[in-house]
Design a protein that fits this description.
Largest sheet: 7 strands, antiparallel
Strand content: 15-25%
Distance between the termini: 148 Å
CATH topology of one domain: Jelly Rolls
Structural class: alpha+beta
CATH architecture of one domain: Sandwich
Radius of gyration: 57 Å
Order of helices and strands: HHHHEEHEEEEEEEEEEEHHEHEE
Length: 478
């Protein structure tokens, strides 16, 4: 069977090879690319000159520059990307470390923060408590000072000291009586037999009505007398010190509840205070009041002055020596109160000047007491508007009605209009002006040092509300 199969295989192979050779002859293999727009050799070729690149040396340099810029930009982008990657990695590692730190020490840190917060709160509470205690202590001191100022007036203190002195004198008289009784009738005093040469006794009642024997020697009596004498001397010194403290307190503190005052440090033509009234000064009656503490008084020391161009002396309130004077319409109409100011004493004095045109009645009040009253003062006169108001000085030169000329330092007649000999030196507060005549009760209430009269202000010039402009060295103090 193998012999039969082999010839058949050879035959099939021969047939296949013959067919392959015949097929290769018939098929022409073409491996070239075929293009529909291919230009053949037979067709005429249209040649177009192709642009040749510029071979200039300048363009070559620019090409190099552009390539360098491209390279630098590419490097910059690579560096930025690298920096961003580094930051991301570092932030990630830092975040991980923070998380591990919080996980490890979170509890202890929380307790430490809580402890610190408690300590801070305790310190704040202690500080607030101390502040409140200081504030309460200060209020108690102020209340004590107020009580002392209100209840510790010179009259009350003098009464208390007189009571103490009377008690001491009564005790001294009792001791003297005991001594005389012991010397005159020693047996009755002692209630015993023979008296002793060195001691004397007397009986004093004790609880339950029983009698107790007390023996006092002459040396002890003398010691008691010396002690009582020293006590009286100390009480007198204490009284003098209290009076000195009261005087200094009166000089230091402002009266009538006033919070500020005007200080005029010296007499000078340049030191004064100009006032701009709230309403025009066209008055047929008025009341002017103020508190003044003069440092020194000359022949004429002006406190309040109002004048116009025609008459610089329409209203004046001033000191002269120990007297206080009040004028309306000129110095010919004068009201004088003598002994108002103590010579050499720097104390607060409350002055009020009242005037009514209908009756021509002008009165002067000092410390709530009417010290002078004169009829027929500028009767039928009306205080004209258009002048200027000064405190601590008078303008006896030119006056103008314009506000700018009233308050300006370059006002005409500034140098010639002021006299330093008439200037006021000291303190002034509670300056008020009303367009009516105040009653006696109203003036008396405003003259009390312990009152709150500074809260009651005038309707023409009101202390603390009306514009007052200090000039020179004048200034507001607290």
């Amino acid at each position: 069977m193998f012999q039969w199969t082999l010839p058949q295989v050879v035959c099939v192979l021969s047939v296949c090879s013959s067919l392959a050779l015949g097929y290769e002859d018939d098929i022409e293999v073409n491996y070239a690319d075929t293009y529909y727009n291919e230009i053949t050799e037979e067709e005429p070729q249209l040649t177009t000159p192709s642009p040749t690149p510029c071979r200039s040396s300048d363009l070559t340099k620019w090409d190099k520059v552009f390539s360098m810029l491209e390279n630098s930009q590419m490097r910059e982008n690579m560096l930025l990307q690298y920096a961003n990657d580094i930051i991301k990695v570092e932030m990630g590692s830092l975040r991980g470390e923070m998380l591990r730190f919080v996980a490890q020490y979170g509890g202890s840190c929380g307790s430490a923060v809580e402890t610190a917060g408690r300590r801070i709160s305790l310190q704040l509470d202690n500080r607030l408590r101390e502040t409140l205690e200081r504030f309460n202590l200060r209020e108690d001191r102020n209340a004590a000072i107020t009580t002392e100022n209100s209840a510790g007036s010179p009259n009350n203190q003098e009464a208390l000291l007189q009571q103490l002195l009377s008690a001491v004198r009564a005790q001294a008289s009792r001791v003297a009586k005991l001594e005389s009784s012991c010397f005159n009738n020693p047996r009755a005093a002692m209630g015993m037999g023979a008296p002793s040469d060195s001691k004397m006794g007397f009986q004093l009642p004790v609880n339950g009505g029983q009698q107790r024997q007390e023996v006092i020697s002459p040396d002890e009596t003398r010691a008691l007398e010396s002690i009582l004498t020293a006590t009286v001397t100390e009480l007198k010194q204490t009284r003098a010190e209290l009076e000195h403290v009261l005087r200094s307190t009166r000089q230091r503190y402002l009266p009538a509840g006033c919070e500020t005052a005007l200080l005029f440090p010296m007499r000078s033509r340049r030191i004064y205070t100009s006032v701009v009234p709230d309403v025009p000064l066209s008055l047929s009656s008025f009341t002017v009041c103020l508190w003044a503490q003069p440092a020194g008084i000359t022949n004429k020391t002006v406190l309040f002055s109002y004048g116009t161009r025609r008459n610089p002396y329409e209203i004046q309130l001033f000191f002269s020596g120990t007297s206080a004077l009040f004028t309306v319409g000129g110095e010919a109409h004068l009201v004088e109160g003598r002994g108002v100011v103590k010579a050499g004493a720097s104390e607060w004095v409350h002055l009020c000047g009242v005037w009514m045109s209908e009756q021509g009645l002008a009165s002067l009040w000092a410390n709530g007491i009417k010290v002078a009253s004169t009829p027929g003062v500028a009767e039928g006169h009306t205080i004209p508007d258009g002048g200027s108001v000064q405190l601590g000085q008078e303008r006896n030169g030119c006056c103008s009605g314009s506000p700018s000329m009233q308050v300006g330092s370059g006002m005409q007649g500034f140098e010639g209009g002021f006299d330093p000999k008439m200037a006021f030196a000291g303190k002034m507060t509670g300056v008020n002006l009303w367009d009516r005549a105040l009653t006696e009760e109203e003036i008396s209430k405003r003259a009390l040092r312990e009152s709150q009269s500074c809260d009651s202000r005038g309707n023409v010039v009101a202390w603390g509300l009306t514009e007052m402009i200090p000039h020179g060295g004048a200034q507001f103090i607290i």
